[in-house]
């Protein structure tokens, strides 16, 4: 099987709200997550990111541990509300200074910074004017992106505009589980288009600055969730359900980013149902011009689809407790439903462990969009890690999970798919949005009883060797 290229980006990822804490420090404005997570009943046992891993204050120690781990790249996100406390207007110099220090610290150890501009923590001030339903927010995003490029683009050469548009829109506007807690499918469609416009505008700013030689010429793209579907049986109605799912949950979101247009069937469906999305003159040209240098994919699981009659199941709540088997079937009547596949393993949060899905999913991307460089921007398993009597963290299930998924990347590379990096989620234990701190993902454990002391898990030493051998020893 092909080896990993010598400059393969072995990395790990985090996101600002989930790791930084310091939610009111040094002039930061409130984000929608600061407000939402404080509302009763929104998250698992009322957990929030007020303190998180306190990475904001402990980043030097964290980067030192990254260096010891051997990370070649670190993916982090910038909190918009640190840079612009009100989302627009006055820049907060202390916010700029923090990310500047973090980037310098990474570079000190030759760790390549991989920056995400938006990992869901919209400034609350922008939500107050309509959030992603207001086109002014797309313009504010372009301005924020430009400031980040100008301030950090002399040192950062890998950029992601958005993290998982699919998830923050579906969870925020269809399921009502993330802020702003809306359940309205028409608004899902409108918001998607405005976010795509924001992405395209940010790319245009980036191209302009690099053309003018004002910043280093790097690479820019978006990170999408990849949750490939598979029909649960070879019955024609299950295959149809799978096709419905793929176009609605994947093509609708990937096409505008990688092809600059919307899939015709979904377009017709949404237009006839709600006359959405509202497209203004110039929008589609803007999407066409916004060429990505690569696509980031966040892969955790696959999903299995079955026929769902018109009077079938609708959307249900999700398993946020970690009680295996508590996830109910959920779907869109008349189109598809997501069902459990009895032949494969699931995590305690009922996520299907299916490494083949990663290989197959990125193959599908190449088939539909042609050869485009791919980076796995997230991959990991949420688990309640076992702790031995001597305090050692025995996260063997994580090692096994990561190993199988890295092998899937290796197979994809052997198929000539240009996968240029792999970022495990997550570098360190952090807040899982709705699931609290008991759903752990990191290589580094945080002892929440002991002043957030950092401890290396078994997986830390395992990943260290994977990187040292460039993936030869898994
Ligand atoms: C992705 C997000 C991450 C992370 C991960 C795990 O969708 O980009 O921020 O949280 O999923 O999800 P969860 O924390 O819900 O288990």
UniProtKB/TrEMBL annotation:
Q: Which residues form the active site?
A: 378
UniProt KW Nucleotide-binding keyword? no
Q: Provide the GO biological process annotations.
A: carbohydrate catabolic process
Pfam family of the protein (one):
Glyco_hydro_1
Entry's InterPro entries? GH, GH_1_N_CS, Glyco_hydro_1, Glyco_hydro_1_AS
Say if the entry is tagged with keyword Hydrolase: yes
- Sorted alphabetically, which keywords does the UniProt record give? Glycosidase, Hydrolase
Q: Which family does it belong to?
A: Belongs to the glycosyl hydrolase 1 family.
Protein name, as recorded:
Aryl-phospho-beta-D-glucosidase
Source organism: Phormidium tenue NIES-30
Q: What is the lineage of its organism?
A: Bacteria, Bacillati, Cyanobacteriota, Cyanophyceae, Oscillatoriophycideae
